[in-house]
Amino acid sequence: MFYRLLRIQQFFEAGYQSVVSLIRVLLRSHYRSALSRERKVRDELFVLGNGPGLKAHLDKYSPLLKSKELMCVNQFALTPFYTELKPAHYVLLDIGFFVDPTLPRMKENRERLEKVFREETDWPMTLYLPYEARKSQFIKTVLTTAKFVGIVFYNRTVADGLKPVRHWMYRKNLGMPPPQNVLIGALMVGLNLGYRKIIILGADHSWHLGLQVDREGMLNSAEQHFYDKKPSVVAVHHPETLDRTKIHDYFFNLYRTFRSYHLIRQFADHENVSMINASTVSYIDAFIRRRLSDYPWSEDQK
User: Across all residues in the chain, what is the average pLDDT?
Assistant: First the structure.
């Protein structure tokens, strides 16, 4: 009886979330999605996260990755691997890239990315950005100065609830699972572009191992990416309000992050898309795990 009542409760909660998500979509999403117009049947996409584990793959498998369609995120363009691998797709999600005021490190990274897109990108590349960024100075600069970079906007509106409803919103690019991390946005972009197989590298997602609470009770994080020589301790802020984050909010956001990958997995299965996590180290438990050293995997391994 208890589990039956629990299932009934979950059904009504999902129904409520469906209604809320549809209202969000109605108020926030843009219906003529350029991303939807980009959809066609495509074969295989490698999505590169910036976790520390990516370094070993880049050092060993760069010749393989050069021959593949790549999607990169955030500060990847500020590394030498960017001009070596020449990714076809690039995703930014954090609104801190597009608003002012923003965190000093975000402003610095934004300016550096503008320069790289303008001066070092000499191959056709598509930059995928949330609709909220469309009127930003960043967009104006890239559009007027980076002649090889095209821009496509996507909806990052949170969509949850009953599976048929949320899958409809995902496929129409009207929303996505809670986009707590840029990799969530990148995977949803890859799915909406029509790739039949998506391989994930560099998705360590081990941030919880670097959490610190200082003597003043403030939350800090020892962050490290594949391009960092050592972890750097940074204060944890909310990306939009710029307020310091409380630890219970941080762990709630981690819950939303890892749950989003399970929602993506359900959508990928519905769309008959194979999603493989080949990261050297990863706390994501939603996707099939494989070793890149065994690539290409046999059909029975996918």
Answer: 90
